[in-house]
Amino acid sequence: MSVRLARLRELFKIEVSAILQREMKDPRIGFVSVTDVELSMDLRHAKVFVSILGDAAAKAETMATLGNAQGFVRRELARRIRLRFIPAIHFKLDESIERGVRVQRLLRRVIEVDGERRSDVPGGDRRGDPQEPA
């Protein structure tokens, strides 16, 4: 990836985030965080990945509202960023944060269950294999 494209991605991320937080007055938009922006090589399309806090219904409503606001976001970007062409904006739901939280919760549960099993077995509190001497 070129340095220019990387800088533009970061600039778009910052500006879209600011637009969504400060300029959008629609109450249907819940708590939205811009997690990443992918720009096409010709700068004609921008995928804006957003993380939305809430249940499935709130996420669906927020995504629909963001879809309707693509033109507004694009116009605001044109006012803030000087480029020959402002890319078409496509919002995509990013669920990686939720997946990470779920994986951490599962790992914590496995550690707790493993700790309980080790405390139930005599001499099981030692690290390593219970068959081998420590």
What do you see in this structure?
There is one protein chain. With 134 residues, the chain is α+β, with helices and mostly antiparallel strands. The chain has a domain at 3-94: K homology (KH) domain (GMP Synthetase, Chain A, domain 3). The protein is built from 4 helices and 3 strands, in the order H-E-E-H-H-E-H. The chain has helices spanning 3-23, 56-68, 70-80, 96-120; strands at 31-39, 45-53, 88-93. It has a 3-stranded mixed sheet with strand order 1-2-3. Strand 1 and strand 2 form a beta hairpin. The chain is elongated, with a radius of gyration of 23 Å.
CATH class of the domain at 3-94: Alpha Beta
Overall pLDDT level: 86
Strand ordering within the main sheet: 1-2-3
Quickly give the structural class: alpha+beta
Poorly predicted ranges (pLDDT <50, ≥5 residues)? none
Shape: elongated
Largest sheet: 3 strands, mixed
Order of helices and strands: HEEHHEH
Architecture of the domain at 3-94 in CATH? 2-Layer Sandwich
